[in-house]
Amino acid sequence: MTVTATPLxxxxxxNVVDRLQVMLxxxxxxxxxxxxxxxTSPVAVIPDLSGYIVSAGGKRLRPIITLAAAHACGTAxxxxxxxxxxxxxxxxxxxxxDDVVDDSDxxxxxxxxxxxxxxNASILVGDxxxxxxxxxxxxxxxxxxxxxxxxxSSVIAEGEVRQLAAAGRNDxxxxxxxxxxxxxxAALFEAAARAGALSSGExxxxxxxxxxxxGKNLGLAFQIIDDALDYGGTTSVIGxxxxxxxxxxxxxxxxxxxxxRGSSDDQTFWDRVMDVELQREGDLAxxxxxxxxxxxxxxxxxxxxxxxxxxxxxxxxxxxxxxTKALAxxxxxxxxxxx
Length: 339
Known about the structure:
The protein is mainly alpha-helical.
């Protein structure tokens, strides 16, 4: 039987996140405590800046995946809490660095930290959080898990550099785009799920591959939806300014499809606006029009749906439980954000 991603209504989507937060209440509370404790430092700007972005919250999807993966094949424990904290620190560090590189003004609906403390402080506090993440990994005493998350950190950095090198390219192949988002986003989802599984007990190694496949495909679906939302979402949904990718000259899947399907005039437009120095007033509105009129928006969502479906299929090899059901619903939630 083919598994398909089922976009949820906004209320149902909220219920999925709420349900997981209730199911993981103890684990998330322990993770939040560690996030606060391990972000402390006698250097005042470190807890101030890190607390600013960590307290802004987000949905804590990566820690949730770490914790739920542990429960899907065993039981979360203190080591799992440390890993969930490490995963969130890695994610937060990349956000701090990304906002400097991309010159973003908003993050999680608030002023980007670099607009409050400056770019230098944001980069250095990001480095501090990376270091804290590795300390937490070492404390688990599991060399395999340390290898998984350290490798993922390297891949994420490579993905960000790869994306930077691709900025402004109007001929970016779909395969290169997918390689970029697999590295910069899906790698951490994959590592979070695998590490969570391995932390839960000796008998969970057989399920770690399936959960890693779930995480990777979930991460791909999540990033594709984020890229679609840049041309049709609301700031409250994506937590950053609409059109940021466009203004930064990032060639994402909606543009790749719209350019491929467009007329010669459309392609000339895309060739010009991908050079940020040549963008003009009204270009973003026209870009959104072309993405919608060519069907690129729907095609992008269909691609995300396909990856979400693969994520759900990966869960079929695990013992079915409330945890696997919640993880499957989380895949539906990720794509529902743009439907």
